[in-house]
TrEMBL record:
Higher taxonomy: Bacteria, Pseudomonadati, Pseudomonadota, Alphaproteobacteria, Hyphomicrobiales
One Pfam family linked to the record: OsmC
Protein name per UniProt: Peroxiredoxin
Entry superkingdom: Bacteria
Record Gene3D superfamilies: 2.20.25.10, 3.30.300.20
PANTHER family: PROTEIN YHFA
Length: 141
């Protein structure tokens, strides 16, 4: 796996993944940025949410569960001093699907956290990661 980040100007960078997808990174104005892109630490949280959401949906689908939607919201706290690592991260899963088993949802989330989500396992080395979840029995795409 490869990635590349190139400086554009000020505190703006473009990032390109090895698969050819691009993103704009930028800093806050007080740090010399123009606020036109995502912050690098926000990108870490998005990566975590995307990694675990991918796992949970895949596990549920493989288990023939009727998952219709999955949203993962993330809230995190960072240390006050440098390096300002994440200290706590909370993942809120919102799933929907008629007949979706709560037990299987919990199991999918646990499997993601403990076995499959590389981002969760890495970040869990420095931050306390907690989760909560809800299931809406309606099919809400």
């Amino acid at each position: 796996m490869k990635a590349r980040v190139s400086w554009v100007e000020g505190m703006m960078f473009t990032g390109e993944s090895g698969s050819g997808h691009a993103i704009v990174l930028d800093g806050a104005p007080e740090n010399g940025g123009r606020n036109v892109g995502i912050r690098p630490m926000e990108l870490l949280l998005l990566g975590l949410a995307g990694c675990t959401a991918f796992d949970v949906v895949l596990i549920l689908k493989r288990g023939r569960e009727p998952v219709a939607d999955c949203v993962v919201e993330v809230e995190a706290e960072r240390a006050q001093t440098d390096p300002k690592v994440f200290t706590t991260i909370h993942l809120q899963y919102r799933l929907s699907g008629q007949g979706l088993s709560p037990e299987k949802v919990e199991r999918a989330i646990q499997l993601s956290k403990e076995k499959y989500c590389s981002a969760s396992i890495m970040l869990g080395q420095v931050a306390e990661i907690t989760h909560s979840w809800t299931v809406d029995p309606r099919v809400v795409p």
